[in-house]
Amino acid sequence: MSRRKKILALAATGIFALSLASCSADAGTSGGGGDDAAAGAECNVGISMPTRSLERWINDGEQLKTLLEDADCTVDLQYADNKTDQQISQIQNQVAGGAKILVVAAIDGEVLAPVLAEAKKQDATVIAYDRLINGTEDVDYYATFDNYKVGQLQGEFLQTELDLANATGPISIEPFAGSPDDNNAKFFFSGAWDVLLPYVESGVLVVPSGQSPASNDDWASIGIQGWASDKAQSEMDNRLSSFYTGDEKVDVVLSPNDSLAIGIIASLKSAGYAPGADYPLITGQDADKANVKAILDGEQSMTVWKDTRTLGEQVFTMIEEIVAGDEVTVNDTETYDNGVKVVPSFLLDPEVVVKDDVQSKLIDSGFIKASDVGL
Ligand code: BGC
């Protein structure tokens, strides 16, 4: 019997429900799908990912598709080239094609309400994947990494490396933030800025470009639209050429993710920076291969690793539960308010990777191959 058929058979006998109750004892559960979830659902899944231009989304999509197809689900996986209209029409097509479960990593978290309302007309269950979908009742669950913690790990890394608690400064820092339309970006920034802002206020850290949000709420003023590497590069070019004339050097760049770090590194290189004593600390997120290579080469200091395989597995578990008509396992029912409701969420733990961890954390676990990063 296939895994899915087994799930359905067990659900029918009630055994599955019992085993789920014991599995989720420490995680908490929430049935957000109402009567429909209780009745179970056909395993017909539409997956909508933002773009193929970033390694992580390719891995995320392919992995979840494989897990679902191995369980005999019908799957339609689409990538939207970071274009909101394209994502909306792809989801419309999935709904028209009979999708009963939608897994959506939103490009713009604010614009999907109408298409999700369409999906609800055929009782689809909607899972926000990695990024929250805002302004709608029609999102049932959210699975992601702890986004605030991602930023906090970046801030704490810099705090420790620079021994900020004992430093007198001034240490120059250039902060960047993610795409203003991505709900995650404000969490990343807040996590980092809650650690770093007190040092900016005390003068230990200085921001020569003046691109220093006075509070977490101002984060979007330094956001890089679409998380684009080339936009981060030209922003860094502007800051370096306007504010680092003469002998001034930038000591630290707070980059929220790896795609921005790639642009920032390219800008530093063209301004004559080379790894060594005067090279700045640069943060990142995702453990993309190019960035892991940059870490090994001394061009990037760290990345926050989110093992996207665990996110895919968690969403697969959610889908198994929805298909079985059981309560869906979540572990956070407070953090993610989308403006209409608090969306029941499952948060996974991100972790820091530095040069010395590349082998033990990324390669030994099979997340990347040694040959991908020149080892
Ligand atoms: C994801 C990050 C990713 C960024 C750019 C965010 O929503 O959480 O992992 O780096 O989007 O794609």
Largest sheet: 6 strands, parallel
- Computed CA radius of gyration, to the nearest angstrom: 22 Å
Q: How much of the sequence is in beta strands? A: 5-15%
Ligand types = beta-D-glucopyranose
Structural class by secondary-structure content: alpha/beta
Mean pLDDT: 91
CA distance, first residue to last residue: 42 Å
Protein topology:
Layout: H1 3-13, H2 15-23, E1 29-30, H3 34-38, E2 44-49, H4 55-70, E3 74-79, H5 84-96, E4 101-104, H6 113-121, E5 125-129, E6 141-145, H7 147-161, E7 171-175, H8 183-202, E8 205-206, H9 229-243, E9 252-254, H10 258-270, E10 281-282, H11 289-296, E11 303-305, H12 308-324, E12 328-329, E13 345-348, E14 351-353, H13 358-363
Parallel strand pairs: 2-3, 2-4, 4-5, 5-6, 6-13, 7-8, 7-9, 9-10
Antiparallel strand pairs: 1-12, 11-14
The structure holds beta-D-glucopyranose.
Residues 54, 56, 130-131, 182, 184, 227, 257, 259, 285-286 line the site of beta-D-glucopyranose.
Write a concise keyword list for the protein shown above.
single chain; 375 residues; alpha/beta; 6-stranded parallel sheet; 4-stranded parallel sheet; 13 helices; 14 strands; 42% helix; globular; binds beta-D-glucopyranose
Can you characterise this structure?
The chain has 375 residues and is an alpha/beta fold. Helices cover 42% and strands 14% of the residues. The chain contains 13 helices and 14 strands. The strands form 4 sheets. The chain has a 6-stranded parallel sheet with strand order 3-2-4-5-6-13, with helices on both faces. The chain has a 4-stranded parallel sheet with strand order 8-7-9-10, sandwiched between helices. Strand 2, helix 4 and strand 3 (74-79) form a beta-alpha-beta unit. The longest helix is centred in the middle third of the chain and has 20 residues, at 183-202.
